[in-house]
Amino acid sequence: MERLQKILAKAGIASRRKAEDLILAGRVSVDDEVITTLGYVVKKGSIVKFDGKKVEGENKVYYLLHKPKKTICSLKDEHDRKTVVDLIQSNERIFPVGRLDYDTSGVLILTNDGEFSNEMTHPRFHLPKTYEVKIDGVLSTAEIKLLEKGITLDDGTVTLPAKLWVTSKDLSKKTTDFELTIQEGKNRQIKRMMEALNYNVTRLHRSKLAFIECKDLKPGEYRRLKPFEVKQLRELANNGVLK
Ligand code: URA
Questions:
Q1: pTM for the model
Q2: Could you say which of 9, 49, 70, 173 is the most buried, measured as most Cβ atoms within 10 Å of its Cβ?
């Protein structure tokens, strides 16, 4: 059972707000009866028509892309740079779930399912995201503790606890490589965490989103997410655990 305006919005006919106007204008019927009541709940199996034509549910698709560097996560770019959507051959109107910067590579999910995207980006329970990071400096133990505990960003917000694992330190080149698992997805979060300590990020790769990894894919390659992966991501975002 679903509300009429939601069905119209999901089918890509109009936004929920515009769908309400279409309903009020008498252009929508359920089982051949014109419905002009907002919030009307449609029973399972009922036939919804818009201007006399059957409304089909949009086929939901979910892709995992190994995002290469030098691609952007918006649908169009004013400078004509390649977008992540350009890399995927799909007949559906897909968009990226969340964002990775132009120079960041790694796990990125694309879908045409707006509800799934909302669940992933505004989860009730934070989905862990692991990044491989390289910076132009040598992290001290005190700095590592601070990053793990929560660090104050340029806008005054404090990050949630994180996990940091140093994989290599080069004292002569003055660089550190590490894995950092964060729970949130604030805009440019890792770079801003490092900027708070006066370091620059020189390499950034998202190796994991919850349990999803892309090491079997080359940069630019993609695959469909398996139905169980979509289901488990939803469960983690909504309940915090797998049932
Ligand atoms: N943090 C960043 O700074 N950039 C990204 O692309 C992802 C996380």
A1: 0.80
A2: 9
